[in-house]
Write a structure and sequence with these properties.
By secondary structure, the chain is of the alpha+beta class. Helix content is 34%, strand content 15%. It has five helices and five strands; from the N terminus they run ββαβββαααα. It has a five-stranded mixed sheet, covered by helices on one side. A hairpin with a 2-residue loop joins β1 and β2. α2 crosses α5. The longest helix has 17 residues. It is globular, with a radius of gyration of 15 Å. The chain binds FE2/S2 (inorganic) cluster (FES) (2 copies).
Length: 155
């Protein structure tokens, strides 16, 4: 079957097997910035934003989200023009091996789109599905708070 998506603001059509999960369809079509690990919906590494909400792409059938708008980590910033969240994660030492980073930043990004001034509790809740075995989370929370400051200064 054929599916259509808008990914990072560009239109794509892919021929897929109806049983494939979105994570595999994305990676097989070059979106390798989306990471796969547990394939069970528990680690959060594969998080992307689907129609405005963060979702684990390993638990979503690609066919189920035909016509969706999808954002991957490359859709919010780049090496040359990082999003304040990406900048803050680097500045605050919130990236070690980096495997969890795209998913965690996208969960934080979705939170800030809806709630630009979250409490610490709200930040923790937003990223609680993104497991990190390296940082212990403290730096990630500090980074998200620093990004909020950067975003406020940008206005
Ligand atoms: S690979 Fe999807 S949640 Fe772990
Ligand atoms: S930085 Fe290594 S898993 Fe999070």
């Amino acid at each position: 079957m054929k599916v259509h998506y808008k990914i990072n603001e560009k239109d794509y059509s892919f021929e897929i097997h109806p049983g494939k999960v979105l994570l595999d369809v994305l990676r097989e079509n070059g979106f390798t910035e989306v990471k796969g690990n547990c394939y069970m919906g528990t680690c959060g590494a594969c998080t992307v934003i689907i129609n405005g909400a963060p979702k684990t792409s390993c638990t979503v059938l690609a066919a189920q989200v035909n016509d969706a708008e999808i954002i991957t980590i490359k859709g919010i910033g780049s090496v040359l023009k990082p999003h304040p969240l990406q900048e803050a994660f680097i500045k605050k030492g919130a990236v070690q091996c980096g495997y969890c980073t795209p998913g965690t930043i996208l969960s934080a990004y979705a939170l800030l789109q809806k709630n630009p001034n979250p409490t610490d509790e709200e930040i923790k809740r937003a990223i609680d599905g993104n497991l990190c075995r390296c940082t212990g989370y403290v730096q990630q929370i500090e980074a998200i708070k620093f990004a909020i400051k950067l975003l406020t200064e940008e206005k």
